[in-house]
Every structure is written in structure tokens, then in C-alpha cells.
Amino acid sequence: MTIPKTMRALVLDEHHSDAETAIRSLRVAELPVPEPKSGQVLIKIEAAPCNPSDLLFLQGRYGVKKTLPTSPGWEGAGTVVKNGGGLMGWWSTGKRVACATQGDGGGTWAEYALVDAISSIPLDDAISFEQGACLIVNPLTAVGLVETAKHEGYKAIIQTAAASQLGRMVVSLAQQDKIPLINIVR
Fold first, then answer.
1. What is the pLDDT of residues 145-186, one digit of tens each?
2. CB 75 within 8 A of CB 99
């Protein structure tokens, strides 16, 4: 596969507290395709969701800050097209993966994204890129919430937004662990 020198990406130049204004402020830009360093892989992004954490980031209300301008997007899925060296990078080259970005680099709302090779998850051929793109943020958040409740010895969990994807995952995990759950649907 030939990797182009430039790619299209959504770019955020400044945060806006109003979600609609923040979304409308995104622009499509032509950027250089990033070069992976040791331990990193370059992924040709095929699908990337818009999660509540992405909207909070656009508004400047998410816990992780990035130098602006930047390309948003915390998770996605695609094919590893290049590696910067290291065993995991070499092993994952050519594989379909789910991925997550953190830190100050660009996100997954672009044609290509750089991620740490260790944070990409190989996808079975039966899993679509769209399904794989939603594999990290919500599932790990749901597991973290339920595991924290168990670790802290809480007798029950109360959750708002129970009809959301995250909420439905918490319902399933709480049922599995027989934890009483109070669900509030907004």
C-alpha cells in the first residue's frame, strides 16, 4: 500500500463552550501524514465514533488537554499500514485493529492516526470497522465503573443515562455480577 504524504482531517482550532458551536467550528484540513516513532503504528482509519468524551473535548471540558489546533477523536478502527519499529509494531502491521489515542497528538477524526502499538487491539474478520471503532471508550468505562463499585464495596449502583450505549453495558455487567442497579433514563 502506498501511503500518501498528506491526509484530510477534521481540525479543532479553539474550544467553544456551546456544543453546537464547537461542532460547527471544525474544519477539514490537509495535513502531513504523521510518521510513526519506535513503539508506534500508523493506522489508516476506516471508522471513528463521536462519543460524549469527544464533545466534551470540543468544548474544552474534557480532562485531557491537547495543543490546538488538533484533530479530535479518541477511538477508531482501521488497518495498520506502517510501524516505527518494535515487536508490537512489526507484529501488527497489516492487521485490522481498534485503537485509542491519548496525549497531545492528533486523533482519529482523520484519514490516518498514530497510536502506541500496544494500545491497538486486533480485530477478528467477523467484526466490522464500525463495531471495532466503538470497542474501547464505552466498554472500558462500563467495566471501570462496575469494578470500582465492587472494589469499594458499594451495595448498589445508580446510573443516569441508562438508555445510552454505556448505560446498557453497565446494565449487562451489573446483572452478570448480581449488583443491584437503579437506572435513570433522561
1. 999 999 999 999 999 989 988 999 999 999 999 999 999 987
2. yes
pLDDT digit string (tens) for 13-29? 999 999 999 999 999 99
| CA 35/CA 42 separation, integer angstroms | 7
Alpha-carbon distance of 181 to 153, in angstroms, equals: 14
**Strand extents, DSSP E, the chain:** 6-11, 27-32, 40-47, 75-83, 96-100, 112-116, 121-122, 157-159, 181-183
The model scores a pTM over 0.90: no
- The grid coordinates of residue 151 equal 472494589
Residues 74-89 pLDDT 10s:
999 999 999 999 999 9
Q: Please check whether residue 114 is in contact with residue 79, taking contact to mean a CB–CB distance below 8 angstroms.
A: no
How far is residue 62's CA from residue 120's CA, in Å, rounded to a whole number? 22
Indicate if the pLDDT at residue 12 is higher than 90: yes
Contacts of 62 (CB under 8 A, 6+ apart): 53, 56
Nearest Cα residue to 103 out of 127, 87, 119 = 119
Cell 445508580 -> residue? 158
Residue 67 DSSP label: P
The strand order across the sheet containing 112-116 reads 112-116, 40-47, 75-83, 96-100, 121-122
